[in-house]
Fold this sequence. Notes:
alpha/beta, binds iron/sulfur cluster
Amino acid sequence: MRCLGTSISLQEVPGEISLIFQITNCPHRCPGCHSKELWTNTGDELTENLYRSLLLPYEEFISTVVFFGGEWDSELIRFLQIAKEKKLKTCLFTGADHVSDEIRHELTFLKTGPYKEELGGLDSLSTNQRFWDLEKNILLNHAFIKNNITQTHNTQGEMNVETNEGASC
Ligand code: SF4
């Protein structure tokens, strides 16, 4: 699997400080996708060594590791297990409506459903997407708000700060 970059966010998982891995080669092709840079097979190959090196500077102060995509690659399960070994929570954002039981077993949180522009994302009351706390078996859609600040980094560690109005993913 390839990773376009990482970001630190307070928005993607309610109540959690998240380190997000943006995985490319997304097969879902949602009309209205705001993240088309994730459609092609670009970015750095996310080896276990690179993954661990990207986690290391943040693992003491983040609470959750989030994957934007990657459920199509068997390596995802190992990466989720590594996060759990470090006592971190885990989350997957997928455009699919379902993921395998093997992946669910390694997740604390799961966002499902393709982005449909006419229904909106997680901050929309009409959305088709669902955000689950799998450990508590509760739906958390109500907890999403707009306009949190996000720090973004590429895999070389360069940082930007930007306003995030909610990912379409
Ligand atoms: S919204 Fe997310 S799942 Fe859908 S095409 Fe874009 S990156 Fe893929």
